[in-house]
Amino acid sequence: MYTLVKAPGIPDDLYERVYDFCKKLLTLPKPYCTIGLHYARQLKLERTIPGILYQRMVSAEQSLKNDSFPYQEKVFMFADPYLLSDAVCRAVVTEIKAARTSQCIRSCMIYVVEHVLREGLKDHCDFRTLQAILQEKPLDMIEHCFQQVVAAIEHAGRDMSAECNQYVEELEKIYSALLSTSSSKKDEEEATAERSPGIPLPNPNISFHLWTDEDQLWKELVLFIRPQSQSGEEDSLSQELDSFEIQDFDCCEQARFSVLSTDSGIERDLPMPGDEVPEAEPRLQRKGGIKKRASTLDCLSLLQTGSNGQGTKPAGKLHRKCGGSIMEPIAQMKRLHTARVLVLGDDRVLARLVQAYYSLRKRESRRAYLTPRLKVQFYYVPVMEEQPSSCPMEEYALPDMTQPCELSAYLGRVDPWYESNINTLCHMIPKLATMPSSPSKNSVSDLFIIDVIAYYVRLGLQPIFFQVYAVKLFFKNAVLEPAEDIFLIQLHVTLEEFDPTRDNLLMKKKTGVEVPGADVTLMYKKVLLSNREKEETVSLRSTGLVMKAIPSDETEDLVCLNVNIAEVLKTSNLSGRSYSLVTNKIRTRNINMQSTEQRSFAVCLDKDSRRVYRNVIGIEVSPCLEPSYCLQKTRDRRTSLPGDEDVGLAKYLPKSLLLPINTFAGIIQ
Prior knowledge:
Elements (H helix, E strand, L loop, with lengths): L1 H5 L5 H14 L6 H17 L3 H10 L10 E8 L6 H14 L5 H17 L5 H10 L2 H20 L5 H17 L4 H8 L13 E5 L5 H10 L2 H4 L2 H10 L5 H5 L42 H11 L30 E9 L1 H20 L7 E9 L23 H9 L1 H6 L3 H10 L13 H12 L2 E6 L1 E7 L7 E5 L2 E6 L9 H7 L6 E10 L5 E16 L12 E13 L2 E20 L5 E5 L6 E12 L3 H11 L20 E6 L6
Parallel strand pairs: 1-2, 1-3, 3-4
Antiparallel strand pairs: 5-15, 6-7, 6-14, 8-10, 8-13, 9-10, 9-12, 10-11, 11-12, 12-14, 13-14
Helix pairs in contact: 2-3, 4-6, 5-19, 6-8, 6-9, 7-10, 8-9, 16-22
């Protein structure tokens, strides 16, 4: 499919063979039928209107202004400077700058005109002459020709019942007008001698960002749909962003205070223009009214759209959700902007992404600003330079279970295209960054990293959804308020440093052996394959535990936490009393852990040493709730009876927060 979009002059029999193959995929289960239907529609559209796929891709990716196709796309590449070295960042930025040499507006417009006329007119188009003519034209004439070509394509796309001959006739008129304004034949022959017969496909518009600000993703998305030239000064934009936190949501929560009014409401009581009003009395002014709020159904539609189009609440099945409709539903509002957010790094950068995504969803649930205007898709390219520093470990902790790129390894197991195209970049990008630069490295034809990323963001359309988990931490110091955080991949609990002065001396005297660990109580809901939950309570002595949200084996791809608990078992033999360490495994969605002897633990989230909580004596872990669901449930609670759950519009919203990561094929069954 990528070749069919890029290459001109594809034979009709090849189109038919690929189209028949896509139709055969419709008889297979998901994701085969979803992908087959999407590409069958694209092939049919391309055969009816030759050149439309290339035109739409380039026009959207390069943000070429036109009245007929106003869609825009952009790739936002984020990297954490704490995880990637300067050499890797420089290597990526160098390729992005080199790719921009073929992305000027003039060149992209010429590429679209050349490709469409060549595809639409076939043998009736002298391609070398057309290239020479377009190179001579000034920018205003090229833009006028580009507008005519896009208008002809989109008019034919809206009226699919019209004859293809009408579309070809429009292209012939544009081609004839270009020939009539060309220079002499001699100049054309001299120009065509140096022209290449190929038409490149420009790389998408990519911006590189070092993740230094927690709200950086939100700000970049706002600037994308409201550039500086359209939104005015930067100060006014920042003021509007700050106002998002206090508008709308607080208005519905806070009480209204009465204000004494001196307006009688009678028109004759208003002062005449010539009358003098004492300065002590305020002039009668019309205050700004309350902005009309959107209807309840419109708000519900926006909240559903912002929740990755999941629609109603999931049925509670344990199997992972993947895929989705590639085409937007007709009933939904058309969003003209698409932001493709791509992150580079190991699992720790995904933890930062999920925090930014959660903050974004909280903002949108209060006031939907980006949701009706922007589609956001997430992509992940693993990059690992060295073994990341693990969380604080101690002598009796669990064996090292840290894999730097667990999520990408899982994606590679379920999607072979992701494994062969994206996971290979994990160690390749750092190697390319350390290689000496060559004279041809800045040429467009040698851009390896950007070419693979462009292939990924263009054809990676099948999302796989990952459950986000919320954790509440209770500290040993009762003065401190409990902390709340979220994690995506792993939660690691280890017993803090062993201190003999605090240990139980009576136990030492009796046993003569220092028994590690602390007595804890676990309360959890054990999940079963029958989708039933069984509440259990266990008391044991443990040195720590690890909660994994990413399955290590795709044969048991269940949306739950795999908890590995390091339990200390006391044993007695002829040589005296001793202990042994065993690992217990449970599967759950909700779990509470409490230290019964006030021994504190260290909790590390998502393998990031920057996110370590110390002096913790209790934790509560549960699936993170979608902010829009929480807000709507709060509103519905005012009119519902005590004890009612998911009444009103809340029952139509997804309950859990899921992070979608785009892949090529989704989960291959």
